[in-house]
Design goal:
mainly alpha, 2 domains, globular, membrane, transmembrane helix, DUF1468, transmembrane
C-alpha cells in the first residue's frame, strides 16, 4: 500500500477518536435538536469520509498499476511544506490553549487573523477586519443562533 493509504488510516482513527470525544460533551438543558456535540460530530464524520476517500484513491491507484511495480507517490514534500503544516498545527494548538482564557469570540478572531497572516496576508487592516468579522459571525452562529455554550474566558471574572 502507498503512504496515502496509511495516512488515511491514521486520519480515520483520529476521526473516530474525535467522534467519541464529541459524544462526551455534556448536553445542556437548553439544547434542542442541535446540541453542543453536533458540529464536532459533523466535522468528525466529514473527516472520516475524506480519510476513506483518500484510502480508496490509494487502493484504486494500486489496482491500476502492476503489482510488480508499486505506485509512485509523486514528489516528496519539502522541509518548507512540513514547516508550514507544523505552523498551522501550532496555530490550532494555540487556539485551544487560548480558548479557556480569552474566550470563544476573541480566540476565534485571533485564530482567523493569525492563520491568514501565516498564509501570506500581510496588510493589518484587512487582517483585523477578517478576524473581527469572523469572530462576530461565528459567535452569532454558535452562541446566539444555535445556543451552543462556549467559554467566556476570564473577562466575566475580572473586577468591574
Amino acid at each position: 500500500m502507498s503512504r496515502d493509504f496509511y495516512v488515511g488510516l491514521v486520519i480515520l482513527a483520529g476521526a473516530a477518536l474525535y467522534w467519541t470525544a464529541a459524544g462526551r460533551i455534556p448536553i445542556s438543558f437548553l439544547d434542542g435538536v442541535v446540541t453542543a456535540s453536533t458540529m464536532p460530530r459533523t466535522l468528525a464524520l466529514v473527516l472520516g469520509m475524506l480519510a476513506l476517500a483518500l484510502m480508496g484513491q490509494s487502493v484504486a491507484a494500486r489496482l491500476r498499476n502492476s503489482p510488480a511495480a508499486p505506485a509512485e507517490d509523486g514528489e516528496r514534500p519539502t522541509w518548507r511544506q512540513h514547516g508550514r503544516a507544523l505552523g498551522m498545527l501550532a496555530i490550532g494548538i494555540g487556539f485551544l490553549a487560548a480558548l479557556p482564557v480569552l474566550g470563544y469570540a476573541l480566540s476565534v478572531g485571533l485564530l482567523l487573523a493569525v492563520a491568514a497572516f501565516f498564509n501570506g496576508r500581510q496588510r493589518p487592516l484587512p487582517l483585523l477586519a477578517f478576524g473581527l468579522l469572523g469572530a462576530i459571525l461565528f459567535y452569532a452562529l454558535f452562541v446566539l443562533v444555535l445556543r451552543v455554550p462556549m467559554p467566556g474566558g476570564v473577562w466575566p471574572e475580572l473586577p468591574g
